[in-house]
Design brief:
Radius of gyration of chain A: 18 Å
CATH architecture of the largest domain in chain A: 3-Layer(aba) Sandwich
CATH superfamily of the largest domain in chain A: HAD superfamily/HAD-like
Number of strands of chain A: 6
Number of helices of chain A: 11
Oligomer: homodimer
Strand order of the largest sheet of chain A: 3-2-1-4-5-6
Order of helices and strands of chain A: EHHHHHHEHEHHEHEEH
Distance between the termini of chain A: 26 Å
Largest sheet of chain A: 6 strands, parallel
Strand content of chain A: 5-15%
Number of domains of chain A: 2
Shape of chain A: globular
Helix content of chain A: 40-55%
Chain lengths: ~240, ~240
């Protein structure tokens, strides 16, 4: 198979670029426990993230129109707070807690790898996160994106094909000149259906110490990399 | 009047950040004359740009749905080529010439000023250019945007209020926490109608040596700056 030359390296963000779970647990135990949210924070983080796919499915299925992820996260937060018996938070507190997704920390290799990749390629988010979330995360964490793409620009959530297709179209590139880098096999499989090239990077503790999924590449992806610096090596970046 | 704290500094691009006219003339005389496009390049550049506002007005008025600026530029190019009697270009040549808008050069102060502003603020395009155009321009010219906003994200062309309003909304910021920096009085007046703060930076040769418009601030804008480094000074950036 002859591959087209890659012009853009696009990234899944939650789990692939940033460590959402430990970031939420850390802020929860450090900040929110002192404000009376005395819950099992690992369980709380997992429950909140557990509502992520079902909430997006309402958009993907066409049951509702597009709404940005901040809104879905907030709806899901209300449900998780109720489930954990937290009833005392003000609206301002809830808005502030909801923005923990804007404050997620990059994995240790993310910034150095992205900085190298940026010298040769357009580096873009291809995330279900909304623009504000991704910009705030980048400013805080130092992620050097060339452009923020994904659900809000594409008006559709991954793994719907339009999320990938519209992101490539926004760059005016054929999908074959775009590579998706992700820690999730299913994301890469969906991207390939519209013609993206693929790089798998395992993040074996994304879901905590007992993670049992996405520990390795399950398909014949163009690239399997140890981390973002290995990806930069394999893509010829100095 | 008490201003809100500024969180994002957004920029008009054509004329304010990049010198579209001299870039087109230079490429025309250097590259396209050798390919047989032996026209008066200053006149050609002005004619092409002259069709810019009328073409966007079809979208703003609702006569047509949103189409990205690359498409409008290409339609306008066909018209200008015909007007100047250029009939021999292939479709590939025309596509390549149309992308001169992706290759516009920054004004000399743009990169240093933006780099300083980026240390304190979200720096964003708020341009009628489409995403691909603005990303390619940034990669080539070294413009360090945090995020590409404007017509394609807002699905509306400036000076329609939705272009500004939807760009602020994409950042999840009240318009009053956004500042528009522009070399065009009319752009700033339109932005203020939805609540943006404003900085005027004169670009007295944008339209060539005989420019007669936008030579100075015509309204009581929050900031009038000599160039982007003066803007960074006035906004407290080291």
């Amino acid at each position: 198979m002859t591959s087209e030359p890659i012009r853009a390296v696009t990234f899944d963000v939650f789990g692939t670029v940033v460590d959402w779970r430990s970031s939420i647990i850390d802020e929860g135990e450090r900040v929110w426990r002192a404000k009376g949210v005395d819950v099992d924070w690992p369980a709380f983080a997992d429950a909140w993230r557990g509502l992520y796919q079902p909430s997006m499915e309402r958009v993907r299925s066409g049951a509702t129109g597009f709404v940005p992820l901040d809104v879905l996260h907030r709806q899901n937060l209300e449900e998780v707070l109720a489930r954990f018996g937290v009833t005392h938070l003000s609206d301002d507190d809830k808005a502030q807690l909801n923005r923990v997704w804007h404050r997620l920390r990059p994995w240790p290799d993310a910034i150095s790898g992205l900085t190298r990749l940026k010298t040769r390629y357009i580096i873009a988010t291809l995330s279900n996160g909304n623009i504000a979330l991704l910009v705030n995360m980048a400013k805080r964490g130092g992620l050097p994106w060339d452009v923020i793409l994904g659900a809000e620009v594409a008006r559709q959530y991954k793994p719907h094909p339009d999320a990938y297709r519209n992101s490539a179209a926004a760059l005016d590139l054929p999908p074959g000149q775009c590579l998706l880098a992700a820690a999730h096999n299913s994301d890469l499989v969906a991207a390939a259906k519209v013609g993206f090239q693929r790089a798998f990077i395992a993040r074996p503790t994304e879901h905590g110490p007992a993670q049992s999924t996405d520990l390795e590449a399950e398909h014949d992806f163009e690239i399997v990399a140890e981390d973002f610096n290995d990806l930069a090596d394999q893509l010829g970046c100095g």
